[in-house]
Amino acid sequence: MFESKSGILLIGGLGFFVFAFLSNGLVPILLYKDMPEKTVEELADNQNLIYLFEDLSRRYPEQFEEYYGEPNEESLAEALLLGRRLYTGEGCWHCHSQFVRPVSNESTRWGKVASSDEYQNELQRTVMWETRRVGPDLSREGGRRGNDWQAVHLFDPQSISPGSPMPKYKWFFDEDSPSKPNKRGIAVLTYIQWLGSWLEEYPLYEDYVPLSEQMINPLE
After folding, report:
1. Residue 163 Ramachandran class (φ > 0 left, ψ -120 to 50 alpha, else beta)
2. Using CA of residue 23, residue 29, residue 35, residue 40, what is the dihedral sign?
3. What is the pLDDT of residues 38-94, one digit of tens each?
4. Domain spans of the chain?
5. In angstroms, what is the C-alpha Rg of the chain?
6. What is the pLDDT along the chain (220 residues), one digit of tens a residue?
7. DSSP letters along 179-199, please?
8. Is 40 in contact with 122 (CB distance < 8 Å)?
9. Is the CATH number of domain 38-206 3.30.230.70?
């Protein structure tokens, strides 16, 4: 049997299976066995994200105080968890991937190629790499635009991006107004601003201005 053509193909197929198992399964386990998965509380200790979360409390003081109280690590962790659940439940990952691939010059458009350590945390369970990009990849979205821009975009995407197929998420807001995000809206804004906030610097492709110096006006 093993001298026949079918036997050679069988052995080759089994060999490739074993190789794939070792390279894609066992090797990553060994590489990251000493790197514990970060909790949401650990992820909340992030100065880029803390700045944006505090900015939410200043821009929407009534809603923020009602739903989250003070902007601290505990309320930030709560918003991140809820934001992740809403992002998943609303199916945002159907149109937005969270994985910058090392092909087709993707790093020019979205920043550095994704690395496996970025997914070693509680908010990446399960990971939402996806394959479709009806909208842009969001793994480097945090900090690229201010909270006001993100709020208006959630409330009425077409007002900022004409022709966008993205639905309007008006149930994330009180009183039918983008200036009054409710608990769900603040949570989703927090989660979106978390994506990529762990990078030491933001991609250069958008003339980024440090958050401490300027928040982007959503109408500009």
Report:
1. left
2. positive
3. 999 999 999 999 999 999 999 999 999 999 999 999 999 999 999 999 999 999 999
4. 1-34, 38-206
5. 21
6. 556 777 777 777 887 787 777 766 676 667 767 778 899 999 999 999 999 999 999 999 999 999 999 999 999 999 999 999 999 999 999 999 999 999 888 888 888 899 888 998 999 988 888 877 899 999 999 988 999 999 999 999 999 999 999 999 999 999 889 999 999 999 999 999 999 998 876 554 444 444 444 444 444 4
7. T-B-HHHHHHHHHHHHTTTTS
8. yes
9. no
Check if the beta carbon of residue 60 is closer than 8 Å to that of residue 186. Answer: yes
DSSP state of 86: H
List b or e across 205-219, with b for residues whose CB sees 16 or more CB atoms inside 10 angstroms.
eeeeeebeeebbebe
Pick the closest to residue 54 from 69, 41, 39, 40 (CA basis). Answer: 69
Residues contacting residue 140 through CB under 8 Å, at least 6 positions apart: 100, 110, 111, 112, 195, 196, 199, 202, 203
Give the amino acid at 94. Answer: H
Number of C-beta neighbours around residue 199 at 10 A? 15
Q: How far apart are the first and last CA of the chain?
A: 71
Residue whose structure tokens are 């200043």: 58
Query: Which DSSP category does 220 fall into?
Result: -
